[in-house]
Structure formats: C-alpha cells, structure tokens
Design goal:
By secondary structure, the protein is an alpha/beta fold. It has helices at residues 15-25, 62-72, 86-90, 94-100, 125-132, 151-176, 186-193, 195-202, 239-248, 266-277, 282-289, 302-307, 309-313, 349-356; strands at residues 6-10, 29-35, 53-57, 77-80, 105-110, 180-185, 221-225, 231-235, 296-298, 317-318, 325-326.
C-alpha cells in the first residue's frame, strides 16, 4: 500500500522502531540508520527491523553525517526518537533537513513531547500514561494501578500516532509540496485515546472512582481464574449477551443476577462468579462458551494464541525462523499478510551509499 514511499529511521528504542516496522509492513522502503561499530541497542536482527534496509553510520563522523543528511534528502519522512535538541546538535534538526528537502515530513517520537516542563526529563511508558490519565483505571478499587504492557503508551499512544502523523504529513506534502514536523508524544496520544472513555463518562457510564463504572466495576466485565490456573475474560455488556451468559451458567432465573446494573450487588456477584469459575478448568469453560454470543473468551499467552482456532485460521501469529511474530495489520483485499525478514546491522550500507553517489 505504501510502495514508493521512503522512510529514514534513526535507530532508537520502542515506539520509533515499531512505527518504522509498521510502515515497512505496509510496503514503504524503510532505511534504518544503525549505529556503526559495537553492539546495538536492540538485537542484531531485531524483529522490529523486519522488512527494512540497514545502513551503519557514525553520526559524529563528518563523512557519515554528510551521508545521513544526503540520504534524508531522498526521503518522504524521517523518524527520530531522541530528547528535544539532540538532532539539532548533530546537525540533523528540522531546519537543516527541510532546507535540503522542503517536502520532508520530520517525525519526532518522544514521551513528553517537544515542549512543556518535562520535555527534557527522562521517563518511560508507565510515567507517560500516569501523567496523561490513561493509567488511572488500571487497578481494582483501593489498589495501586498495575504496570500494563507497553501497548497503552509506547505503541497505542506513541507509535501508532506517529504513523498517523507521518502519513497525514506525507499526504499533505504530496498536495502542497510542503513538509512538516510531527510532534508525536505518548502523553498526547494516550490522552487522546481516553476520548472514548470521556464519551462514556458524558453518557453516565464512567465514574472517576475505580470499580464504579460499566467497564471496570461489574461482575460481567472482568477476568476470572479457573481451577487449572488459567483465566477467562467476561464482558457481556448488552442485555441480550448478558442473558446468554447467564443461560450458559444456568443462572437465568437467579433474582440477584437478573439485576445486571445494580451496583450494590456487583461485589457479591463478582465473588459468586469467581467461585463458580474456580470450580472448573479453563478447557471446560472454553468448551461451554464456544460459539456463543455470551462474550466470553479464554485469556491466552502469545504462544497459546498462535494455536487457537480463530487466530490460527487467520494466520495471525507466525514463526519465521522460529521467532514468534504477529502478521502485519490491517489487511487489504487481495493481499496476504507477509512477514519480511529483518536485515543484519549495516547489511545494505554499500548499496545505499552507492545509490547516493
């Protein structure tokens, strides 16, 4: 889908490389400038580099810096993930790069953003989503928020917003001939994702207090432990799905369970369901709810997901060279998701430099 689009990525951590990988999955020509010499900050053939080309440069070396600048001048977009000011000190800031290439979309990936009191301070995924509000509901009432997987901040609020920003900028540049700078901050993106919950709050379905809302308080919106140590997820919000859920558990005539939205009963009914699920192994519950509209699903590890019937039928998880990876997404009509191999660091240095000469 992105054939003919060139992205230059300055080697970094987390959301930047993921964004570049996502663009490569979609068909862009992504060239990563890896650090020259010594060990890199990720594996020699990281799965995050799949589908990319690699050139190894030392950006503190004048000749390599000149090569990097020349390479950036050929690109539709650039991805960098340093603290604000680092690229400027290297001589690769937006002013220099846009002077060479006025249509360049200059993508800047940070946690705090390019401006604000925290812009020059260190942080990690958990800190960013803590400040943005996205961490608030990640806990049971009266307990500290858990540390969620980086999908909320680094990927959801960071990498995917960078991708949206880059593609928007490229479309605009193709129309106007003018590039732009994309300030993709995890605090911005993860806060923006909260808009769905704010809409729920506006409609009266979300409370500030944890455990008092439709998505984090009811007995019908949580995960339960099973007898074998596995877990089942339950989220039957709509009345018809809730009715089917109760029917499968032979609780359709229970007067307490009939009061689905009675918040006073939620703790008691949660305890009753917890005891019920704990009485049987996960395989029992999986079989019981298989094919139903009760909105119940087993909680799977990535390895288990690769073998699950639905995920397997869609070939979501693949293992090229024995390394478990998820196939590119989303899917497009007439195309089969394919995982391209990752290059070794510097594998394409000679051919890339030859193209620049």
């Amino acid at each position: 889908m992105l054939h003919g689009i060139r992205i230059i990525e300055i080697e970094g951590l987390g959301p930047g490389p993921f964004a570049a990988m996502h663009l490569a999955d979609l068909g862009a020509d992504v060239i990563t400038i890896h650090r020259k010499g010594g060990a890199g900050i990720t594996a020699d053939q990281s799965v995050l580099d799949r589908g990319k080309r690699s050139i190894a440069l030392d950006l503190k070396d004048p000749d390599d810096l000149a090569a990097a600048r020349k390479l950036i001048a050929t690109a539709d977009a650039l991805i960098e993930g340093f603290r604000p000011g680092v690229m400027e000190r290297l001589g690769l800031g937006p002013d220099e790069c846009l002077a060479d290439n006025s249509a360049l979309v200059y993508g800047r990936m940070t946690g705090w953003g390019q401006t604000g009191p925290r812009a020059q301070t260190a942080g990690h995924d958990l800190n960013y989503i803590a400040q943005s509000g996205a961490l608030w509901y990640a806990s049971e009432p009266g307990t500290a928020p858990i540390t969620p997987a980086t999908l909320v901040g680094d990927i959801g609020g960071g990498a995917l917003y960078l991708v949206i920003g880059l593609l928007s900028g490229i479309l605009n540049a193709h129309t106007t001939g003018k590039g732009t700078v994309v300030d993709a901050a995890i605090v911005d993106g993860s806060a923006h994702m909260m808009t769905l919950l704010m809409a729920l709050k506006q409609a009266g379905g979300l409370a500030t207090d944890r455990g008092a809302s439709l998505l984090d308080g009811p007995h019908w919106s949580r995960s339960y432990a099973c007898a074998d140590g596995g877990f089942m997820s339950v989220q039957c919000l709509e009345p018809q799905f809730y009715a089917e859920f109760l029917g499968k558990l032979e609780l359709g005539d229970d007067p307490e369970f009939a009061r689905q939205h009675d918040k006073a009963l939620w703790p008691k009914l949660t305890t009753r369901l917890a005891d019920l699920f704990l009485a049987q192994p996960r395989t029992y519950w999986d079989a019981l709810f298989d094919g139903s509209d009760a909105c119940v699903a087993t909680v799977l590890s990535p390895d288990e997901a690769a073998e699950a019937p639905h995920m397997s039928a869609r070939n979501v998880w693949q293992s090229p060279k024995g390394e478990l990876q998820a196939a590119p997404a989303p899917r497009f009509d007439g195309q089969t998701p394919k995982i391209n191999p990752a290059p070794k660091r510097g594998q394409h240095s000679d051919e890339i430099l030859a193209d620049l000469s």
